[in-house]
Queue: 4 jobs
Job 1
Amino acid sequence: MAKQLFGCEVPIDLDRKRNLKFKFRSYAQYQAKTGHSINKFFFDIAEASKNHGDSKVPLTLVESSKMSDLIGVDRIRDLLHVALIHEDPCLTAERTEEIMDQAAGDTFDEKLDYIVEKISKAYLASKGIDPDKETNSGESASRTEVKSNSTGS
């Protein structure tokens, strides 16, 4: 039996090992907090990349320095926050900022690169796209399913 990728968790190392997941609640809470959809966040990243000479940049490879300038660290924080609350319902935006400081990387840009790469993978999974499969041209693979380990028919 196959299962859709929607709701799959993507591991991320912050203050501890955590798991990112976008569910309907995540989408609703992000929109309520920011006034924009999660989809718009990723559309804005793609547009910012195009407008700065990167015509074909996969979501997971956008430079964080461009993103922090053009998209805003607050939007990245808000997105990370709603992707983590499924496992930590008491997590606040302020605490999310603190754990962002503990992400992998030695510099601000390296930390943002790491966080955005993981957020992007969780977003792609929520759209039914396997974030770990890429075509030879570097574009994201099309929608796919992942086999579950359940037995039975």
Note: Confidence is low (pLDDT under 50) at residues 55-62, 134-153.
Job 2
Amino acid sequence: MACTARSEENMPTPPAEHLPVLVPETMDLLAVEPGMTCLDLTLGAGGHSEALLRASAPDGIVYSIDRDPRALEVAAERLQAFGERSRRLRGNHRDARELLREAGVERVDRVGYGDARQIVLATLRALHRHLEVGGHPHRALGEPPPVDGVAHG
């Protein structure tokens, strides 16, 4: 099966009514506090950026990256109430360091990453729950347990 790159012209526009998933879990794990500077690597429709802005209020700043100009427009509308605290950057998340440098940002306190974040967070939550009840982390992740204390590689 051939894999083709998606151009900006054929990327779907995120719906304005997009409901982000695992927001409470994301916020629990990121532990955002007022005044923090955060980075959302996959802005999309802005749901996680909105949660980061609320958690970092009253003076925290959230930088959000997306390469799709339509997603940036949709998110700008959703996040307009946060004013200058919401700073959207057009580009690819792989270029985050360069995009932040160009924006004059020297450091961020927290970083979130769209779909991968959701999968990772769900896995971490399951692992955490499993360890809390004395289970084995490899079983929580569906891997075989270590043999003689040596983890499988």
Note: Strands lie at 37-40, 61-66, 86-90, 110-112.
Job 3
Amino acid sequence: MNISGLTLGRIVDPNGEIHSTEKIERRVNQGAAVLNDRGVCRGDCVVIAHSGTAQFFEDLLSTWLIGAYAVCLNEALSSFELRNIVDFVEPRILLHKSNQKISVEGTELCCLPDCRKSLVPGNTKIAFDDQLDDKALVLFTSGTTGIPKGVVH
């Protein structure tokens, strides 16, 4: 996959599983199709509440492929901290790992690897015309005031 002139090679996740370029590209396209089917559009906020795996990068690239922007959160956040940020950013959807126990009332939850299973074969090509000024990523500080503080990239 070629993203903004950068060639994506293989990723070896913490479990030692190797993810080839083809496998990543297929999963990213499928993830974007799932997000599209769930109504996520260009400019929407997608919270990714996990990190450190190939699935995180696939979720991030799927989010960007449809023109949405990502708020990436540490999965070790307390339920209060998670709820506080979700209330603040009002995401269209929250992505998590299948073994994560997350409950955020009023927010759609999705584990893309589980949701990809319901896709119609061949229905995974998403066309998106990104713009230079589109939001891509919002990073938050842990802050001590209880009020989320983020930087938009």
Note: The chain is about 30% helix and 20% strand.
Job 4
Amino acid sequence: MPDEELETNELKESIEKSVETAFEAEERKRGWSGYLSLSTAIIAVFAAIASLESGAKSNEAILEKNDAVLNQAKASDGWALYQAKGVRSTVLGGESQFLAATNPGLAQELRQEAARLKGEQPELERGARGREAEVQASNTRGAHLLEGHHRFP
């Protein structure tokens, strides 16, 4: 009977050791999956931040391009006014030459108006060229911001 008791104790110890080994293996397995879950969450956070940065760069680039289009429209308007005043000045000059013989007073008024219109042209030219420079600057800034957007996958 003592032999049977000894075998039972050995068996009991063997079972306890096997259970303990199984628990330790399970614990190691849980540790690995915990690290895996944590690393996945960290990668997801970095991806979300990159996506937000990319979207912000894209929005800024669109705003710069929009400013470029607006300034281009204003520059075109400035050049149109410049040309209109030039054409009007030339027409008034021609009319004044035509009327010089028949109505010298009106011809003088037309020449003065033509000179006034010609005098306004340099200011309009500076304004239009300034707008064109703003278009170039906005396009450059927009392109630079778009490069930043493309760096974020």
Note: The chain has a mean pLDDT of 83.
